[in-house]
Specification:
The chain contains 10 helices and 4 strands, in the order αααβαββαβααααα. By secondary structure, the protein is an alpha+beta fold. Strand 2 and strand 3 form a beta hairpin. Helix 9 packs antiparallel against helix 10.
């Protein structure tokens, strides 16, 4: 079975590159249209656009509330907070670009009673502050990616394998961003942090693969790739399992952690494609061409 897989890969690994290339081209086209339509590369929540976040510590029908608020507040988003064990609703989070005063008045109209510090909390963030913070986070992400690329090139000092690692990491980030947009997820500051974390997650298996193929002397090329694959997939699947369990636990009571873990799982799934198809194919092609000379 192993010999058949090796023979298949030896014959078709260059053609397999068409799969991630197609995903990458689609991602570029999608982000281009998305930016043209929304003047941005992602949906943002109020922590990045400015607005009001209100928490109501009552049992509320989210669908009815959303219908009521639809034409009364700007860009409304509603999330429920539930007890981890009983799954009983404990609170509702309402996010909107409207002011805190306007939001409070409309919610009191719907509920039919006053909202106080005992039964609710309100937090307002100015749009200029949020926009500035958003730009700083994006700049931090760009710097993190650039410094990662510099370290990779210094580590291996060979252009093609180093470029393959950087390309795979870039594809992970871009494809994850596209998936997040397709799911309609509104990115918060926590979401940007998750993308920063993903940069680190994206390169670990790529570095493992490239290091074993280029620096290990014993074994054939396929033997070194297969050894890296076993170790790398164990790392990635373990991370996905751990993050998946954490996501299951926190999704009912933490919006912030839910977004972080969701982005990480999506990114790790794309990392499997980009490491073990994109990077493997490029580095195998490079080594075989080098051995012919």
């Amino acid at each position: 079975m192993k010999e058949k897989i090796v023979a298949f890969h030896d014959k078709y690994y260059k053609f397999l590159l068409a799969i991630p290339i197609s995903f990458l081209l689609f991602s570029f086209i999608y982000i281009g249209f998305f930016y043209y339509k929304n003047n941005d590369i992602m949906y943002k929540d109020i922590s990045l656009t400015g607005g009001t976040s209100a928490i109501i510590y009552e049992k509320i029908n989210s669908n009815e509330l959303k219908q009521f608020l639809f034409d009364k507040l700007e860009d409304v988003s509603i999330k429920e907070i539930s007890d981890l064990v009983t799954q009983e609703q404990k609170a509702v989070i309402i996010e909107t670009r409207s002011s805190a005063e306007e939001t409070k008045d409309v919610l009191e109209e719907y509920l039919g009673h006053k909202l106080t510090e005992e039964n609710s909390s309100f937090e307002f963030t100015g749009s200029s502050l949020s926009e500035s913070f958003y730009k700083q986070l994006l700049l931090a992400m760009v710097f993190a990616f650039v410094f990662m690329a510099i370290v990779i090139f210094i580590m291996f000092r060979i252009f093609v394998p180093s470029a393959a690692v950087v390309l795979s990491a870039f594809a992970d980030i871009l494809m994850t961003l596209v998936a997040v947009n397709l799911f309609g997820m509104k990115i918060s500051t926590a979401g940007i942090v998750a993308f920063l974390m993903l940069i680190g997650y994206s390169v670990d298996t790529d570095i493992l693969l490239t290091n074993r193929v280029l620096k290990r002397k014993e074994g054939s090329l396929n033997h070194k790739i297969f050894g890296a694959f076993k170790t790398g997939m164990t790392m990635t699947l373990t991370a996905i399992a751990a993050v998946g369990v954490a996501l299951f636990i926190v999704k009912s009571f933490s919006v912030v952690l839910t977004q972080i873990f969701s982005i990480l799982i999506i990114g790790l799934l794309f990392d499997i494609l980009n490491t073990w198809v994109t990077n493997v194919s490029i580095i195998k092609w490079y080594v075989e061409e080098k051995e012919k000379k």
